[in-house]
């Protein structure tokens, strides 16, 4: 039978009339599914019933609250009997840095459980459930295998390999003392501006559906093999529902679609995940036609738990309950009444526990709803084996980053590469003299992307990835094995002309919020990679581009300057997988686009089968050595203002990038000076007397970034110590940094949380001046970089601002 496109399916199911905006789902329209019978058996349910009878109301409410390791201590559990902890993207284990190997994570899990399982009067011992964002391997733990991100894995079209990736991820997560992986993401990204697009397997719901059950079974095992003792962890399919369809690709935004589209596109993976036995489902930050998912009873309860027969529990996302109308982070009975079973309240847990307990006593949350939520949570804990004492994988740190798992990741890298162009330069002969260029060529953090050791994937060095292989190192090993050579030169310089150059470049790592973009143009207004490609072309060197990205981007100029062009996505820790295909020709390309590639930088919504579909490279495109093809010269007209791309970089490489501008009061002198890395890569500002330097531009809405603990980051060198007050301001909120500035020689980094500026009076939802520096007396400082950043290391809140 001819395959009907999903857009046509949605139309056939009956689009709602234009102008209507459904917020309440009709369960009868949704597909049926059912959790495996093994999740609900009479023997386990009897145990739960007996346990529920012993629990106080305080203990029941505690099971429904999850706190973050950065905001709770094991001792807190003696007063607040919470049921779960998590370690957020940049949250540390106890007494150790965020970037830690397995041992501190195991110790953290054991420390919290030791208190939770204490035998003491008035306390029923119940094990905690420890969750973490193991979204492409156990990516928070130093030494773990980092798999390609989901947008890469979608290009493989290989559910069997997805299952093996899930199995390896589960083993490495269990070995770190963690029970619960917050994945897989089953979003179906429809707008590539979305900063989490790389967490989706494909724009096509069929690809997502084909992977959903396989990944759940990889993480959890089949029902007969469930249990942390067997090296399995709980999955948490997310984000239910519609996170990939928000208007304008805005993270945590509003998915404005009719119910038929919500079903046909955005729900595609969930029936398979439920049927496979997913133990938990995570609610989405996003809204459906204005109604926040954390408060949508028709979807969380009537559809998911009713029509789709989900018998596990629903967990919230990071303070997502606080976004419901009428709620705050610390007070939200509505989310539990809607069907949320466990609220993720990382830093608001204490307040939420208190108000939820009060709501339970007042009957605002019915006891039947509380008992249902706690039953579901206890059911998962029992089926996961948390009530059983042995945890054998905690004694097997050697499985983390094992050769077996790295081989699986290397295979996934090779299978996910998509060849977009090849004018005969690939495969590179193994015996060739290869120049490997580009700033990302020998940078494992760059090739791994976001959600890697830190939330946004920034701040990492190769030393943070023991056992991993950069793309350059993989190429060098392949060249040496074939009798050739590989020389690393980030800027493309050489003394002996190479046979070929492999240039590795692409997006910087990012995650939710900061990953949202307003243009798909790569390096809009600052074409560094293009300049490097032109330099090599002018020297007559055949050039292969290896492009790192979480999503398709408009790279027509770079394509024109390349003899071959490979979409490598974010391949993770096993860079040798790239060399396996590029060098020697022993392995062919097999990856096919799971996301359509744009013809202009303004083709944000570009999905197969949709009206007006006109990509540069269509869904399913991918060349190979066996089946080549040519790419003609491409238009280099982006189709959108390049300055729209920048929302977080205010000064770099000696200049203020568009659309921002620098203005100085007359009392301030300006001179170009060298930065730590580049000639004239910084500006020196000298105050003769009182004055202000300002960087201004279009209005920015930074509420999400403020709530997400982002910082204003300034890289500076103090050339003349201040003799009076020095104010740093953002959006009208000013803090005094005179005593905070490092007076020692050399370059330093100042990080001030956006919350500090809000506490000092900034209106963070309307920021037109993201940086202002004032002094009341003579003072001189050189500045090389100003941006919004997520790395929390050394962040301070100077006088005038107290983070709230």
Report on the architecture of this protein.
The N and C termini lie far apart (59 Å). The protein has 21 helices and 28 strands. The protein is an alpha/beta fold. It is globular. Helix content is 26%, strand content 17%. Helix 3 crosses helix 12 (349-362) and helix 6 (159-174) packs parallel to helix 7. Mean pLDDT is 94; it is low at 1-19. The strands form six sheets. It has a six-stranded mixed beta sheet, sandwiched between helices. Strands 18, 20, 21, 23, 26 and 28 form a six-stranded antiparallel beta sheet that branches. A five-stranded parallel beta sheet has the order 4-3-2-1-11. Strand 2 (84-87), helix 4 (102-116) and strand 3 (129-132) form a beta-alpha-beta unit.
pLDDT under 50 segments (min length 5)? 1-19
DSSP summary: helix tally: 21
Mean pLDDT over all positions: 94
Distance between the termini: 59 Å
β content, as a range? 15-25%
* Proportion of helical residues: 25-40%
């Amino acid at each position: 039978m001819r395959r009907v496109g999903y857009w046509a399916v949605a139309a056939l199911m009956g689009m709602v009339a234009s102008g209507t905006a459904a917020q309440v789902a009709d369960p009868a329209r949704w597909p049926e599914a059912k959790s495996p019978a093994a999740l609900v058996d009479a023997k386990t349910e009897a145990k739960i019933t007996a346990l529920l009878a012993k629990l106080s109301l305080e203990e029941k409410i505690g099971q429904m609250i999850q706190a973050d390791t950065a905001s709770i201590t094991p001792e807190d559990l003696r007063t607040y009997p919470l049921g779960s902890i998590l370690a957020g993207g940049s949250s540390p284990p106890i007494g150790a840095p965020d970037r830690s190997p397995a041992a501190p994570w195991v110790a953290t899990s054991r420390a919290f459980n030791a208190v939770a399982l204490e035998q003491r009067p008035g306390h029923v011992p119940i094990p905690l459930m420890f969750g973490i964002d193991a979204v492409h391997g156990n990516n928070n733990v130093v030494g773990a295998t980092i798999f390609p991100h989901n947008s890469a894995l979608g290009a493989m079209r290989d559910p069997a390999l997805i299952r093996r990736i899930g199995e390896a991820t589960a083993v490495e997560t269990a070995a770190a003392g963690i029970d619960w992986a917050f994945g897989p993401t089953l979003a179906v990204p429809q707008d590539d501006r979305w900063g989490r697009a790389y967490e989706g397997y494909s724009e096509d719901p069929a690809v997502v559906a084909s992977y959903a059950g396989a990944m759940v079974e990889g993480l959890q095992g089949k029902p007969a093999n469930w249990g942390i003792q067997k090296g399995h962890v709980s999955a948490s399919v997310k984000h239910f529902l519609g996170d990939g369809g928000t208007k304008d690709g805005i993270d945590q935004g509003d998915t404005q679609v009719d119910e038929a589209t919500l079903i046909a596109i955005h729900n595609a993976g969930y029936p398979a995940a439920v049927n496979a036995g997913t133990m938990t489902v995570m609610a989405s930050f996003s809204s459906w036609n204005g109604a926040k998912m954390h408060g949508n009873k028709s979807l969380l309860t009537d559809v998911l738990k009713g029509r789709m027969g989900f018998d596990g529990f629903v967990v919230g996302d990071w303070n997502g309950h606080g976004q419901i109308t009428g709620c705050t982070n610390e007070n939200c009975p509505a989310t539990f009444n809607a069907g949320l079973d466990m609220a993720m309240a990382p830093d608001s847990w204490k307040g939420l526990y208190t108000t939820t307990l009060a709501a339970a006593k007042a009957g605002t949350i019915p006891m039947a709803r509380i008992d249902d939520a706690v039953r579901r949570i206890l059911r998962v804990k029992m089926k996961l084996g948390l009530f059983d004492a042995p945890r054998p994988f905690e004694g097997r740190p050697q499985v983390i980053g094992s050769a077996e798992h790295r081989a699986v990741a290397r295979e996934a890298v090779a299978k996910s590469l998509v060849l977009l162009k090849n004018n005969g330069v690939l495969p590179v002969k193994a015996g060739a003299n290869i120049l490997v260029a580009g700033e990302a060529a020998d940078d494992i953090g760059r090739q791994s992307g976001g959600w890697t050791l830190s939330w946004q994937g920034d701040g990492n060095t190769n030393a943070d990835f023991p056992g991993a292989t950069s793309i350059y190192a993989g190429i060098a090993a392949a060249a040496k094995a074939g009798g050739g050579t590989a020389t690393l030169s980030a800027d493309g310089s050489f003394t002996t002309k190479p046979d070929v150059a492999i240039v590795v470049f692409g997006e910087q790592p990012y995650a939710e919020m900061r990953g949202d973009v307003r243009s798909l143009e790569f390096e809009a207004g600052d074409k560094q990679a293009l300049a490097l490609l032109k330099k090599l072309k002018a020297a007559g060197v055949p050039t292969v581009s290896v492009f790192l990205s979480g999503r398709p981007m408009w790279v027509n100029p770079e394509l024109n300057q390349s003899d071959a062009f490979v979409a490598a996505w974010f391949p993770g820790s096993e860079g040798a997988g790239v060399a396996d295909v590029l060098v020697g020709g022993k392995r062919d390309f097999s990856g096919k686009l799971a996301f359509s590639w744009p013809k202009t930088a303004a083709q944000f919504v570009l999905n197969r089968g949709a009206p007006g579909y006109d990509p540069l490279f269509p869904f399913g495109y991918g060349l190979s050595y066996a089946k080549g093809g040519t790419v003609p010269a491409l238009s280099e007209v982006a189709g959108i203002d390049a300055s729209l791309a920048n929302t977080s970089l205010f000064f770099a490489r000696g200049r203020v990038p568009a659309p921002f501008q620098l203005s100085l009061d007359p009392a301030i002198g300006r001179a170009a000076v060298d930065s730590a890395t580049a000639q004239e890569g910084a500006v020196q500002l000298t105050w003769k007397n009182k004055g202000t330097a300002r960087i201004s531009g279009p209005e920015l809405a930074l509420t999400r970034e403020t709530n997400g603990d982002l910082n204003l980051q300034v890289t500076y060198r103090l050339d003349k110590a201040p003799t009076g007050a020095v104010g740093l301001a953002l959006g009208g909120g000013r803090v005094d940094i005179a005593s905070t500035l490092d007076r020692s020689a050399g370059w330093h980094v100042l990080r001030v949380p956006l919350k500090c500026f809000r506490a000092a009076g900034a209106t963070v939802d309307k920021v037109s001046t993201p940086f202002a520096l004032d002094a009341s007396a003579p003072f001189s400082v050189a500045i090389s970089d100003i941006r919004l950043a997520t790395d929390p290391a050394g962040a301070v809140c100077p006088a005038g601002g107290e983070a709230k």
